[in-house]
Amino acid sequence: MADVLTPEQRRLNMSRIRGRNTKPEKALRSALHAEGLRFRIHRRDIPGCPDVVFPKRKIAIFVDGCFWHGCPQHQTVPRTNAAFWKKKLQQNRQRDKVVTQTLKSDGWTTLRFWEHDVRKDLPAVVKAIKRSVRLAK
Questions:
Q1: Which residues are paired to 52 by β-bridges?
Q2: 29 and 40 in contact (C-beta within 8 Å)?
Q3: Which Pfam families does the entry mention (predicted)?
Q4: 20-135 has which CATH code?
Q5: What are phi and psi of 64, to 5 degrees?
Q6: What are the structural domain ranges in the chain?
Q7: What is the pLDDT along the chain (137 residues), one digit of tens a residue?
Q8: Are 118 and 66 in contact (CB under 8 A)?
């Protein structure tokens, strides 16, 4: 099936997709802050540049987008340029594994949540994070 957009329109569309400060990330940060938790965001000196970081407790939190990280429930591979996208999404998943392993070997606790989990059940996600923060004291 041919793309309904021109290559220039598609490129513009894809370039505007955010990699950070997404709605699920903002909702999670707001909920964590409301619970009295204080954290840092997007620390570039930590492998993978986690979305939320508790540096003293060595906890890194990632909110993975269903499309970009290959959610088992919602994953779709675009029909246009399918080979490129299949390879790209596999590389993203592999990079996630490497980042998680690297952080673990450095003594970090890594928590990964799908964007749909944050959207559907934010209180459960916050509860899991609070539990990890409490345990790391």
A1: 61
A2: no
A3: DUF559, Vsr
A4: 3.40.960.10
A5: -90, 130
A6: 20-135
A7: 577 888 888 788 877 777 788 999 999 999 999 999 999 999 999 999 999 999 999 999 999 999 889 898 988 878 878 898 899 999 999 999 999 999 999 999 999 999 999 999 999 999 999 999 999 87
A8: no
Q: Which two tokens stand for residue 47?
A: 């492998």
Q: Residue 120 carries which side chain, given as an amino acid letter? A: K
Rounded to two decimals, the pTM is 0.88
Q: Strand, coil or helix: what is 81?
A: coil
| Cα torsion through 131, 66, 13, 43, rounded to 10 | 30
29: amino acid identity, one letter: R
Judge residue 108's burial from the number of C-beta atoms within 10 Å of its C-beta, 0-12 exposed, 13-18 middle, 19 or more buried: buried
* 87 Cβ contact partners less than 8 Å away, ≥ 6 residues apart: none
Distance CA 61, CA 52 (A): 5
Nearest C-alpha neighbor of 42 from the set 59, 58, 21, 24:
21
* Residue 3 · residue 80 · CB < 8 Å: yes
Q: Read off the tokens for 34.
A: 């409301």
Amino acid at 69: H
CA distance linking residue 103 with residue 123, whole number of Å: 26
